[in-house]
Write a structure and sequence with these properties.
alpha/beta; 2 domains; 7-stranded mixed beta sheet; 4-stranded mixed beta sheet; globular
């Protein structure tokens, strides 16, 4: 391992050189079942042939021109995303954090356009919105904020899944202009709110002329069993953000807006050199086509239920496990105590998992995962967990 890379990650001692669907192969030739898909990125599977062909074809034509000019394939992607989501327009970035930065800027500009000089945005405890300075400030995790003060002001934190706390915050501060929330908290521990939570937030925003902004970086693109998680609630946000699995591993982010929010940013207000370049947009279009043509959102719902019910059945009655939950292929197995060693234990058994919020095993397998692979995951991970608990 080289010393020339900044040590910003606690990397596991393994390097992958090849992938295929739900499998990764390391530099020694060993294969691993990937239950994380690059942290919800490779949704249509590793080395997806249709996406790979689209990338190669586009790379041979045109990779980048900049946003000084029209980008026809970017326009195609914008039209597709708006048609799928019911939004009015899109700003393209390179990552989820950048997409959330755009959302925050929309909220602040919206406030100033309405004569609010010190705008505030409601965010949630245990949330995660990125690691740029503004998105870090919006994130509800003191551990990753430490050492980067002073943080960006203008964020009011309330408990997740607590509508009354939101109402109380709005009553106490007339400068609140938006609510930024994840439909399901990913990094926070796969926290799934009450079924009506987003509907209640939508109603509160309508009553108070606030923008409802949803961070769908991890939940979007079929992950929860719908193309976008807000579809479970039959609502539309004013702003929502996408990234991660948009282009199956090619970096891209998007901030979508509708109504008044779509009219806020004008020429010169925001920009990105690489955002929405032809290569990334072609990869995103190919990824969306794979999701639609293969009904991967519907398959994610079925696969998620199979895994959820399987884990609940096989781990029933285990006193050291406090909850097993999921929405589509976004699953969490929560322990009563921290379980950091589970990641290395799983690695020993050629299984790639993640522990987030210290005690939640987070599973984010590709949407293409087969029934045999689901059963293999169930058997392997259950065996690992039971052995771990026994120790």
């Amino acid at each position: 391992m080289t010393d020339n890379i900044m040590p910003t990650y606690s990397r596991l001692p393994i390097g992958f050189v090849k992938g295929n669907g739900s499998w990764l192969t390391d530099d020694k030739g060993d294969k691993y079942l990937d239950c994380l898909s690059g942290i919800a990125v490779c949704g249509v599977g590793h080395a997806n042939k249709k996406v790979a062909q689209a990338i190669a074809d586009q790379a041979n034509k045109l990779v980048h021109t900049s946003n000084l000019y029209q980008v026809p394939i970017q326009e195609q992607l914008a039209d597709k995303l708006c048609a799928l989501s019911g939004m009015d327009n899109v700003f393209f970035a390179n990552s989820g954090a950048e997409a959330n930065e755009a959302a925050i800027k929309i909220a602040r500009k919206y406030a100033h356009d309405n004569n609010i000089d010190k705008p505030a945005i409601i965010v949630s405890e245990n949330s995660f919105h990125g690691r740029t300075l503004a998105t870090l400030s919006a994130t509800g995790n003191r551990k990753i904020q430490a050492g980067f003060e002073p943080l960006v002001s203008g964020f009011i934190r309330v408990a997740y899944n607590d509508v009354e706390a939101v109402k109380k915050a709005i009553s106490a501060n007339k400068n609140i202009v938006a609510i930024l929330v994840e439909p399901v908290q990913g990094e926070g521990g796969v926290n799934i709110p009450k079924p009506q939570y987003l509907n209640d937030l939508r109603e509160i925003c309508d009553q108070n002329r606030l923008l409802l902004m949803l961070d769908e970086i991890q939940t979007g693109m079929g992950r929860t069993g719908k193309m976008f998680a807000f579809e479970h609630n039959n609502i539309k946000p004013d702003v929502f953000t996408l990234a991660k699995s948009m282009a199956n591993g090619v970096p891209i982010g998007a901030c979508l807006a509708r109504g008044e929010a779509a009219k806020v940013l004008k020429a010169g207000n925001h920009g990105s050199t690489f955002g929405g370049n032809p290569l990334a947009c072609r990869a995103a279009l190919a990824t969306i086509e794979e999701i639609e043509n293969n009904n991967l959102d519907i398959k994610a719902k079925a696969a998620g239920l199979n895994l959820l019910n399987g884990f609940k059945d096989k781990l029933a009655g285990q006193s050291k496990i406090s909850d097993i939950r999921g929405l589509g292929l976004m699953l969490g197995i929560e322990f009563k105590e921290d379980c950091p060693n589970l990641v290395s234990k799983a690695l020993e058994h050629k299984l790639l998992i993640n522990v987030t919020a210290s005690k939640v095993v987070r599973l984010l397998p590709p949407l293409t995962i087969t029934e045999d692979e689901q059963n293999l995951m169930l058997e392997k991970l259950t065996s690992i967990i039971l052995a771990y608990i026994g120790n």
